[in-house]
Amino acid sequence: MAEKRIRVLLVDDHQVVRRGLRTFLEVQEDIEVVGEAGDGAEGVTAAEELRPDVVLMDVKMPGTDGIEALRRLRELENPARVLIVTSFTEQRTVVPALRAGASGYVYKDIDPDALAGAIRSVHAGHVLLQPEVAGVLLSQDDSGHGGGTGRGSTLTEREREVLGLIADGRSNREIARALVLSEKTVKTHVSNILMKLDLADRTQAALWAVRHGLTS
Distance (Å, rounded) from C-alpha 63 to C-alpha 163? Predict the structure, then answer.
């Protein structure tokens, strides 16, 4: 293929799950499974060695769990985007995983084709927030995290438009097309948004926008 394939690392403590994911993903022409790991610590090591584009990460694993692994990857400034794939839907796992830097959150019963689409989506820079996950976030009393409404008042109208599109899962390229801007200008707006709201990344920006009603 002319385009580079998406390099994926599988992190799950169940070998049968990893095998099933690998079997399906290996038939995708644009996706390549570059490695596997059985827990979060192994996953962090593998991510540093293999430099995948996307990590499929379980949350509940013995030893180092997925949330701690996410935190370590952020500390290491590893560029891989992490897609949480889990059977757990409790609030105590959804919110910490997203705050720790996950780019999306899907369940293990997801349709295989939908999973491949999710991998492509987070690789393209989108943030995947399923409706029920957004509902959990909106139910949070979270005024002390990631900037409050007061900080939002420092955003320009254009920055609020960009932030709303980030929350809708748009990549910089798609935002540029929607607002008739250059990608460079969009990147500048994104940087300003993160700085003004004291946020670390696009995922946190999307969560902030959901909480403060900037989604379409």
Answer: 37
Distances from the Cα of 37 to the Cα of 27, 91, 116, 124, angstroms: 20, 25, 19, 24
As given in the structure block, the two tokens for residue 147 are 């900037």
Tally of CB atoms within 10 A around 135? 12
Among 49-58, 78-87, 118-127, 201-210, which is the least confidently predicted range?
A: 201-210
Contact between 209 and 164 (Cβ < 8 Å): yes
- Predicted local distance difference test score (pLDDT) of residue 193: 92
Residues 6+ apart with CB under 8 A from 16: none
What is the β-pairing status of strands 104-107 and 54-57? Answer: unpaired
Distance CA(205)–CA(211), nearest Å, equals: 10
DSSP3 helix / strand / coil % (the chain, rounded to 5)? 50, 15, 35
Q: Answer for the pair 12, 56: CB distance below 8 angstroms, yes or no.
A: yes
Alpha carbons 207 and 213: distance in angstroms, whole number: 10
How many CA atoms lie within 13 Å of 196's alpha carbon, on the beta-carbon side?
Answer: 19
The length of the chain, given as a count of residues: 216
| The token pair that represents 85 in the structure block | 């794939």
